[in-house]
Amino acid sequence: MADTPLRKVPDLTGLLKHAGHVLETQLTAALAEVGLSPRMQCVLLYALEEERTQIQLAELAYLDKTTMVGTVDALEKAGLAERKPSQTDRRARIVAVTPAGAEAAAEGQRIVDQVHADALAALAASQRKHFADSLAELVGGQLATPVEAQPVRRARQRS
Known about the structure:
Order of helices and strands: HHHHEEHH
Shape: globular
Mean pLDDT: 92
Distance between the termini: 40 Å
CATH topology of the domain at 37-136: Arc Repressor Mutant, subunit A
Number of strands: 2
Number of helices: 6
CATH superfamily of the domain at 37-136: Winged helix-like DNA-binding domain superfamily/Winged helix DNA-binding domain
Strand order of the largest sheet: 1-2
Largest sheet: 2 strands, antiparallel
CATH architecture of the domain at 37-136: Orthogonal Bundle
Strand content: 5-15%
Structural class: mainly alpha
């Protein structure tokens, strides 16, 4: 990703998109070996933390409603989670992790941790914590909230 003469700073968007894409493909391949997808792993982890509805889990996992429904369907089909009525709101349904799902989530997290450790191993040991801390600071600060943007439309062609 060479800088052009017009760039005054590194192409942070391009670098983060590329790194994210490669990391996602590595996680997908590694988790597939135990029958999970990164989405399934993420939903299992958040559902294990506390009683949460599908909508709450979708927000935490950055999933749209349709993708979330498909993910929970796949977890149910695999016997890793089930939809149940909430204990605090009879109208709401939560995603409850089964004992098999808790085991799968633990194994999945070991895999995720290894993929992340392998990625960080490309840096000198003295740089790893600083890099992770700096990235967390960006995500928790300047890059915490997406901006609402209208899609760019092409100008109309005059006949």
